[in-house]
Amino acid sequence: MPNISRRDFLKGTAAGALGAAAAGSVGYLLPAAAQEEKGSFDQEYDVVVIGLGGAGACAAIEAHDAGARVLILEKQPEATHYSNTRLSGGYFHFPDPEGDHAALVEYVKAMMSGENCPWKLEGEQPHVSQEMAQMYADGVLQVRDFLMAQAPDLDPAFMEPGGSASFPMFPGFEEAKYGSSKIARYVNYTQADASLRPQDQPRLTKSAGEAFHWALVEDGVKTQRPGIDILYETPAKDLILEDGQVVGVVAAGKDGRELRICANRAVVLASGGYEYNLPMRRAFLEGPGVKGWCFYGTPENTGDGIAMAMKVGAGLAKVGKAASRIEVAVPYGEHYEKEGLKMGIASAITSAKNSMIVDNYGNRYADEFIITDSSRPFRYQFYKEALMYELLTMSYPRVPSWLIFDETRRAESCAVATGYSVAAYGLVPWSKDNLDAIERGWILKADTLEELAEKIKADPENRDMITAEQLRQSVETFNAYCDAGEDKDFQRSIDTMAPVITPPFYAMKLYPGGPNTKGGVDANAKRQVLDWQGQPIKRLYTAGEISSVFKFTYQAGGNLTECIVCGREAGKNAAAEASWTGHDAPKSDKADVKLTATSVSQEEEIAQVDLADCKDGVYTATAQGMNGNFDVTVTIDGGKIATVQVGGHNETAGIGSKAIDELPGMIVAAQSADVDVIGGASVTSNALIKAVKLCLVQAAS
Question: Is 638 a residue whose pLDDT tops 80?
Answer without folding.
Answer: yes
